[in-house]
Amino acid sequence: MPTTEDSGTRGTGERTGTGALSRLRTLLDLLDRGAPVEAFQDPAPSDADADAAVVADATRVALRIRRTLGQHRRREAELAALFDTAGDLARLREPDAVLKAIVHRAKLLLGTDVTYLSLNDEEAGDTYMRVTDGSVSAAFQRVRLGMGEGLGGLVAETARPYSTGDYRDDRRFRHTTTIDTAVTEEGLRAILGVPLRLGTRVIGVLYAADRTARTFTPDEVALLSSLADHAAIAIDGARLLDETRTALVELNAASRTIEAHNEAMRRAEDAHDRLTDLVLRGGDVTDVATAIGTVLQGGTLVHDAEGAELARAGTDPRPPSAEAVTASRAGGRAVFVHGTWVCAVLAGQELLGSIALTGRADLDDADRRLFERASLVTALLLLLRRSVAETEDRIRGELLGDLLTRATDPAGLSARARRLGVDLGHPHALFVLHSTAVPRARLLAAAARIAQAREGLAGPHHEDVVLVCPAEAPGVGSGPAAAGISGELRQALAAPVTVGAAGPVTGPAEFAAAYAEARRCRTALCALGREGTGAALHDLGFLGVLLGDQTDLGGYVRQTLGPVLAYDAKRGTDLVQTLRAYFDAGASRSRAAEALHVHVNTVVQRLERIGSLLGRDWQRPERALELQLALRIHQVNRHDGSGPGDFAA
């Protein structure tokens, strides 16, 4: 039977064991709840003299287990964050977005003040700041580190992670003024840098930094290194994707270039076929201008070497730019001047003319070459045209020469003229052209253009340039036509041209005499100081009568006194007699009144009537001389038995 002492001892032991077990159960509950460290520091029971060591040892074990579990949970959280980061980076496609995501995720994982990333520049041999998160210094965001310089340069050079608790006082790194200034301006103290590696190649450095001094743990180094490994793969993937995208863009651009080239080739072939067909069909310059405008979708003008328009399609007339033609001729290419493409039309070094394209400011190389090719076709047509024109001009010149030298075969001349489209049976006017300011060749070319436009003849004869054109109207003299031709040539040649005219004449036999008369008229115009004008002999008054080989006195009188003669014949007056008396009296009204036995007021009234009939300038000396000569001829004819009516208009 147990004693009382044994019973007491057993009771105490039972209570003690029960307290230790309770404490151990409490420790397990604390571990299960993940309680803070402070909860594990409760004092052991006072009666736990035997089990106190066991409880204390169990508490230490529980704390180790807690630390291990905490590390596992933290590692699990870090791994989960790394997996999330890898997933996020895998979804990004733009390199800049990938870099920003890496730096921001590093800041979240390590909880530092600043994170940043630098990339290596293989050409420069250094590493430069690419992306920052949390940085406030512009100088820090632009800093470059040479290989081996500073913490980052050392990481980039050695491909190993480095950290410092306080960079400013850490002598392990090669300090430079640029780096130290940037770090000081940013206020950084503790810095951790790990390499961004692709295999054995370092492409950059990933950093985490705080503005207070502290030591980075191995876990933080491992975490940032793991993030850097994921980041390097993401950066390389984004780079490859960007290069692929760029390659696709370049491939698409190349494809478009090929398509554009094929289109240009097709258009060039089409244009070549069109222009070749035009040449083979005997098309003219106008056809070429139209075809070029259609192919190049613009307006076209073609001018000769003198600037005269030869053809125009789809645009308004405009003179050629001498500056552009000169530049194109010198460079052998089409030039763009003042909104117009211009290409000189050349045969070797000879300028035949120019071709202009309007409405196309964006002419690409293919269309430019096409335009230049069109100028070659134009040159070919102009050469053919010139060859034909020279042959035709020679034939026309030979015909004109035969007409002006009193040929003895009128029927043969008429037949030759008909083959050239000229009907000598219709009235024609003849003009002799002269200019001291224009070379004879240019004057002849301008006359040939007029002859072609009016279905006439033009050519050289002796020292003259002769033009024959159909008369403007039956019975109309050639004087007004001569004045018109003189003005037309002045405008075309920018120089005065004197034109003596004769005719109209009908039939080959009359041309030689008409040429002689027109030549005398041209000589008279120059002698009278009327160079640069056009007229016929009968427009020169009594001088024309004297120079004419067939003196038409009646015509001269009618031309000079016609209105007065007609007035007298119609009303039975004798204004002619009053006019003669006035001139005989030396233009004295009073003496004329005495000779006529009338009052001076009557003479005044008659003279006013004469002035209204002859014009205000009838008393001008030159006109007065013409009138007096006509009065004398009229008086002589009356004495010969001719009546006043013979000269009436």
Search tags:
single chain, alpha+beta, 5-stranded antiparallel β-sheet, 20 helices, 16 strands, 16% strand, rod-shaped, disordered N terminus
Could you please describe the fold and organization of this structure?
- The protein is of the alpha+beta class and 649 residues long.
- The chain is built from 20 helices and 16 strands.
- The strands form three sheets. The chain has a six-stranded antiparallel sheet. It has a five-stranded antiparallel sheet with strand order 8-7-11-10-9. The chain has a five-stranded mixed sheet with strand order 13-14-12-15-16, sandwiched between helices.
- A hairpin with a 2-residue loop joins β9 (335-337) and β10.
- The longest helix has 63 residues, at 218-280.
- Mean pLDDT is 77; it is low at 1-16 and 639-649.
Q: Give the biggest sheet.
A: 6 strands, antiparallel
Across the major sheet, the strand order is 3-2-1-6-5-4
Tally of DSSP helical segments: 20
Overall average residue pLDDT:
77
Question: How many strands?
Answer: 16
Helix content: 55-70%
Uncertain runs: 1-16, 639-649
Class computed from helices, strands and strand pairing = alpha+beta
How far apart, in Å, are the first and last alpha carbons?
A: 189 Å
Gyration radius, to the nearest Å? 58 Å
